[in-house]
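User: Teach me something about this protein's shape.
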Amino acid sequence: MKPDYKNWMPKGMVYSTAAGAAGCLGLAAVCGCTGLIKNESFRRAATGGLLLAGACAGGAALWMEGLYRAFSYDGKRQMSRQIIEGIANYVTLPEGGVGLDVGCGSGALTIACAKRNPQARFVGIDRWGAEYASYNKPLCEANAAAEGVENTEFRQGNAVKLPFADECFDAVTSNYVYHNIPSRDRQAILLETLRVLKKGGCFAIHDIMSKAKYGDMEAFADKLRRMGYEKVELIDTTNDKFMSPFEAAWMGLSGSKLLVGRK
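Assistant: First, the predicted structure itself:
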């Protein structure tokens, strides 16, 4: 049995956008080639509007299809796999240690970290909301079983207010989660994640950390250093680490950075 980590670009969204494009173009053809609309000025305006909407939706569908192919775990590029395994490489747990993956989705990063640390255990939490309806706890558990990984656990939880006490994990991770959370202060969400990290524990958090979404992350990294965190680095992952600058630009992933360090 193979794991099913889904795709960061849902295929249903690609299909529905393509269907919307086809529908608009079909209606444009009906408006322009039939006498359904008698007023010529209105007919031209309606036809032009539908053609424009169809072209925009068609372009969006092509872009989404490109994302789907790039992210696919079974495709040629496999960017998702590269990112997940790249983050996991920063995570080392002690014997009997416990790590936390925030926003685990289909369990990919949780499982990758657990595989890399068989002497420890990794917990994945997620809100599993309607936005990503295909992601759920049973899917995560099935993926762990398919990978032959037994040192994982999955729970429901919210990244904004984690259901854990202070300093109870030896590592915390996350991948492309916080930018999806409506917030004026995503640095506060980062601090909430780091709250549950033990002294000496490591962290590896990857997201679109652009200034528009996160504010000044270099200043935040300095703040962590002043708070006593060690080996804090803010790594640009769009400079051929996880993706090329060109890929980051056309995929809308510009600003992707990996925040790593130790408490």
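Now, about its shape. The two ends are 38 Å apart (CA to CA). The first strand starts at residue 98 and ends at 102. If you'd like, I can walk through any region in more detail.
User: That's plenty for now, thanks!
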